[in-house]
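quick one: aspartic acid bound model?
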Amino acid sequence: MTRKPLLVLTMVFLFVFSLQVACFAESPANLPHIKILATGGTIAGSGATSSTTIGYTAAVAPVDALISNVPELKKVANVSGEQISQIASENMTNEVWLKLAKRVNQLLAQNDVDGIVITHGTDTLEETAYFLNLVVKSEKPVVLVGSMRPPTAMSADGMLNLYRATILAGSKDAIGKGVMVMLNDTIHSGRDVTKTITDRVDTFKAPEIGPLGFFTGDKPVFYRAALRKHTTATEFDVMSLSDLPRVDIVYHYANNTGTAIEAIAQAGAKGIVHAGTGNGSIGKAEYPAVEAAQKQDIVIVRSARVGNGIVARNGEANDDKYNFVAGDNLNPQKARILLMLALTKTADPKLIQEMFWKY
Ligand code: ASP
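yep, here:
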């Protein structure tokens, strides 16, 4: 072959190759398909001035505004949004949880959805995350995200959080990790994370256990995985449920005489999570109310108001004698989620105890 045709051939090859590279780099077909489900919260809030970080209104901006506010999302995923609710998360209900869980399961069963991001208020974000961690039936990533400052504030944290949550939901490394929470560059397991500070951006922590990983720039980096069973490995199925069994929490303190337990039993609860002192202690003066509740077949879980540590079976109470369930290391609000789901399967405290050690 003479030199000229070789040169032409090389040029044609380089032209076609560069076209393909350009197409590959820009084609949205090569980006993950991520659904953003919006529920409200500060991430969709609005304040009167740019310095308003307290006293703003939560749950104002619709999902399309959240997405268009972060044009960078288009570079990392094919995103589309759906509004599930528009509430401050202190107003979260079983109804919204069931609607959300069913929609997540429907979407993740589709081949054209690779992951889901859920925007949420931070107050009960940990509860929704643990609920979904137990009822989502897919290995595909589900990431909850919120913000501590409304989008109208200086140094608002929601836009970067949403951007990173979307990257995480599309990341292959996030598959099979259970439902995650992403704020402040930190990736947490939905089981272990809790809100620890009322008003600052570094509020989400997993006390004693730590995060799953972090973001370094745009890259999620994992250091560990959650060992407690979740998502496809649980026995819970919410698809046919229209409500959840009523479970309330009582808080123990000095001089408590069990009035709250009596009121909850009267309201028709099927379960009570007792946020006890120390290692889940129940006061002597509460026992008459506790035993009366048990005569109504109400299941009692001993949790702790301390915030850290394991509530030991037969430690501060005789669980075998009283048929209590020891709440492991779940905080009271998470113990409530597991007890509600457990009660959809059984009212036997022994079987429920096994679930508290498994999930
Ligand atoms: N109260 C708000 C909520 O949970 C707080 C927040 O989103 O940060 O919706």
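The pocket of aspartic acid is lined by residues 41-42, 58, 88-90, 121-123, 146, 148 (CB under 6 Å).
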